[in-house]
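call fold(seq) -> tokens
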Amino acid sequence: MDSDASSDYEIIDPSQFEVDEKYFDNVELESYDVYPTGWTIFKEILDDLRHRLMYFYVPSNSKYYYLWSLLVSIGVLYNMFAMVIFIFADIKAQFFWNWVFFNILFDIVFAIDVFVQSRLTYLHEGEEVKNTEKLRKNYFLQKLKVANDILCLFPLDFFLFWDDSISLLRTIRAYFDENCWYAEDIDHTLDLDDVRDSYKMELVNYWRNKHYRWSTGNFSREYSMSVYWSSLTITTCGQQPWPSTSSQNLLEICDTLIGVLVFATIIG
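ret:
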């Protein structure tokens, strides 16, 4: 019985197969590379980003902080102009949603600026501090500055959907102007002679560029045109619209007071 079963199987002779020895001589054998999955790559990117944010700092006299301060300054100037311009009904009706979009955009910029301010380097005993933990503590120790930054980020724009005439709510964004100042690198000795010479050159160039004549002709024509335009503005004879709302009246009062104070300063 066993002999019959063994006869059913074919006996294989190993000598009839040729083995190529180059596979044994070659050290770099063919192998299958294990590639990471998309989720693994995504986690590595998140870990790298978290590591960068954890140890991220901004030198107070760097070019990047200078450009960032420029962007924050643009946001502050935008709010100072927009909150005044949009009290007029015709402009508000045409550009309301554009206004809301830019408000949200610059609010995001201001929120990022709070993080940048908390990572701003400073000098301690002549050395620049770059430790992120110390930078954060130094920022939060400035309680008045922190309170000012948080106050400026209050989302008061939601009231505009309830009453779009109270655009002066954006006034609190103007308090962000403290973060617009770029700290110059003054931790080196100044050469007073160079500063004095540069000041003289700027003064000479200033007065040299002032030597020109107006295209209005003689002095009587200059004076008469100045009086004409001044009286036109003061008496509102130039078809200027009258204030119709409380916010417009407030703007008119502020402009008038500023003009009176400037006039009194010049004359007095």
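The beta strands are 122-124, 127-129.
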